[in-house]
Amino acid sequence: MATADKKRNTGCPIAFALDTFGDRWSLMIIRDIALRGSRTYGEFRDTPEKIATNVLADRLRELEADGIIQKSRDPENQRKNIYSLTEKGCDLIPVVLEMVRWSAKYDRTTKVKASFLDKIESDREGFAMEIRSRLKDR
Amino acid sequence: MATADKKRNTGCPIAFALDTFGDRWSLMIIRDIALRGSRTYGEFRDTPEKIATNVLADRLRELEADGIIQKSRDPENQRKNIYSLTEKGCDLIPVVLEMVRWSAKYDRTTKVKASFLDKIESDREGFAMEIRSRLKDR
DNA sequence: CGCACATAGTTGCTTTTTGCAAGCACTCAT
DNA sequence: ATGAGTGCTTGCAAAAAGCAACTATGTGCG
């Protein structure tokens, strides 16, 4: 059973956002799709962060239920499910990019490339759009 | 005992950010300081979201340990601790504002004012600076 | 068909975290 | 000195996360 729905529903936007993706793993999945091009269960599972498979299955269910991602069958391999961001999910890209900016500034061991950072700094909206269309073209 | 330090340390900026404030409560505290002007334990405790006091104490410890907030005594009332954002914490304001934008768009019951949203849309950086200086002037 | 393998999960169990109610310690005001 | 305000801690129950093993279904190939 998926995590019980205990949304706070106080009208606060931060509470709303955290109820949707404010846990240790949801945003990681969104990152995998948006920035790493991941699309399948196996790709989400095999990241350095090592999510437990039951938690992964649970989060995929929740994110789909919340309309952040959508699931479809890979026409070329019926074993695979293809997960992708919905419009609502794509709208989280700016949030992700701001987090990248912040972490790049404060993580001494960051692996964020200067060129990536430059793109965010110089044209945030444009870069977000670029990522979106890259996702659409797959 | 504070939550054990189990940072993932994979070099990924999203993992880094989530390790710092990626839980149900940390960002709520940051919101309280940045957007609601909260500064004391009691103010953090008495929000509609009803954080448990042990979790609150734990998060305040963690956020301080991570250099996001700092703690000082209220000179006018020695019973009170004043919590405020450090520079590192203030740099999270853009992340918070992007989350507000997203939630305002997708939460049908949002309480975000149109005027607040307009400020974000029209001059994001300027608005972030405005919030920062408002915090400094207290 | 029949079998090995790939992919995507589920299940059962342990550990960790959260939630909740009560209580403690220090400070202030009188 | 006392009682109330503020900021916590403690102990215990409930929920979630982590872990390892197992199941289910589709694919490719002899």
Short descriptors:
homodimer, 138 residues, mainly alpha, Arc Repressor Mutant, subunit A, two-stranded antiparallel sheet, 2 strands, 57% helix, 7% strand, globular, DNA-binding
Number of helices of chain A: 8
Largest interface: A-B, 40 and 40 residues
Portion of residues in beta strands of chain A equals: 5-15%
Average pLDDT across residues of chain A? 95
Low-confidence parts of chain A: none
Q: What's the arrangement of strands in the largest beta sheet of chain A?
A: 1-2
Number of strands of chain A: 2
Instruction: Please describe the biggest sheet of chain A, giving its number of strands, its sense, and whether it closes into a barrel.
Output: 2 strands, antiparallel
- CATH class of chain A, named Mainly Alpha
Order of helices and strands of chain A: HHHHEEHHHH
CATH architect. name of chain A = Orthogonal Bundle
Helix content of chain A: 55-70%
What does this protein look like?
The structure is a homodimer of 138-residue chains. Chain A is mainly alpha-helical and 138 residues long. Chain A has one domain (13-136): Orthogonal Bundle (Arc Repressor Mutant, subunit A), CATH 1.10.10. The first copy, chain A, is 57% helix and 7% strand. The first copy, chain A, is built from eight helices and two strands, in the order ααααββαααα. Chain A has helices at residues 13-21, 26-36, 41-45, 53-65, 87-90, 93-106, 114-122, 124-136, and strands at residues 69-73, 81-85. In chain A, strands 1-2 form a two-stranded antiparallel sheet. In chain A, strand 1 (69-73) and strand 2 (81-85) form a beta hairpin. The first copy, chain A, is globular. At the A-B interface, helix 1, helix 2 and helix 6 of A face helix 1, helix 2 and helix 6 of B. Chain A binds a DNA duplex (30 and 30 nucleotides) through helix 3 and helix 4.
